[in-house]
From TrEMBL:
It holds the Pfam family APH. This is Aminoglycoside phosphotransferase domain-containing protein. It comes from the Eukaryota. PANTHER family: AMINOGLYCOSIDE PHOSPHOTRANSFERASE DOMAIN-CONTAINING PROTEIN, AMINOGLYCOSIDE PHOSPHOTRANSFERASE-RELATED-RELATED. Residues 133-339 form the Aminoglycoside phosphotransferase domain. SUPFAM superfamilies: AN1-like Zinc finger, Protein kinase-like (PK-like).
Amino acid sequence: MTLFKCDVDGCLFPSVRRRGSCTLCERHLCKNHLKPDFHRCPDSLVTEEEEEYFERSRAATIKEINALISRVNVDALRDRAMTIRQVPCIIPEIEYDSAKSMMGGMNYHIPINFVDGVTWLCRIRRHNVTSTPLAHQNLLIESEAATYHFLSSRTSIPVPKVHDYALCDSPSNAIGVGYILIDKLDGVPLSDRVLGEDDRKHVLNQLADIFISLKQHPFSEIGCLSSPESLSIGPILEECAIDTDQEGHLRLLGPFNSALEYRKSSIKHQIQLILRGESYTRNAIDAYLVHRFILDNIIDIITKDDQGKFFLKHMDDKGDHILVDNAFNIVGVIDWEWAQTTTLSEAFSAPLYLLDVGEYYGGSNKLSREESEFASILAQKGQDSLASAVTQGRIAHRLAHCVGGDTDDPDSLPDLFMGLLKATCVPDPPFDSWDQWRESMLSRYGDDDGLKLLIECS
Ligand SMILES: [Zn+2]
Ligand SMILES: [Zn+2]
């Protein structure tokens, strides 16, 4: 079943995932009602509409955050923090200011200042038309708390300590919103800093130690940590992997004890979303062929060496999740809310911020200078399997962007996929170009019911 139906009166089609949730008109829209002749909201990608888009987007954010803040029982939050730490604290007046407020795409942070100088953050989930169902939000809170608990109790990786958490609709939660209370760490995001030669080596060396620490704690299943108490593995919570059943209850993928089953289930789920008109609506035929081809031809080769042991991976490793001090010491790794366990090859492919983005999106699989250096450091530390996960990491990167990677730019799929083909060295038959591959697949899957349906609808 679909996550959300189209909000237009009388329309029975499912809303398109992500792109179909418009924060400006606060509606879920299907692929038909997203077309510009019906949906008139400005588009950030159209130059003439950019200014109006950002103006309305700013206004929508202010309205959303003010509504969120009004639900927070500040007295209850202060009492809770004081009871836990047994030190008086102050919560400065909560007022949204886009320049000063600590906010990401998913979470808003309220500072709690203790009189002895310690600061905690109350991390609360933003709520707007792009939000997933409440049951999923609650699972994310529990999983993030569990992940922080695992990292702080079992590894030496610097992370903020979790002092408390509560679910959005828990009767015992007097704060009014779901939240996690964590330490505020001093440091600035690595992605905001300019690194010299020695600084880069110093950061890569510390990053290698983080990889080594994660490798020392294997899990027997693929999924997300689900409970801070038991540290057991539950289903995958990644947004594009969720669904609902006929009654509207969440339906999730996993946990899996086989890499092959994990990959196959993820691809089959994406194929369903494509056929239902919920993802890749602008390039459905191309995306369908890509997912079918990966499922039928590549996935066995990719997963054959990835059995038995799985490792925790930060799934949003763009560089702003690493906090550094002035000497480029890593003081914290934050934002673990989508973290999951996965195969060695995926868990230890290079973090995305080490890639040369231009080369990568152009289809090249050449390792960046930073990736090569990182692999060398791991090898010097005697970690050959981690070093080869980095040097072979392009397969994991490209799989992540080809399967369920419906982005703002549908034109990127051909280069991403041809990069995957090159990385996996599928030799039979040889394809020189996307057009040649696509032509061949249209012929190969000519009798496939799914493909026929998409061609009819196009
Ligand atoms: Zn709109
Ligand atoms: Zn519709």
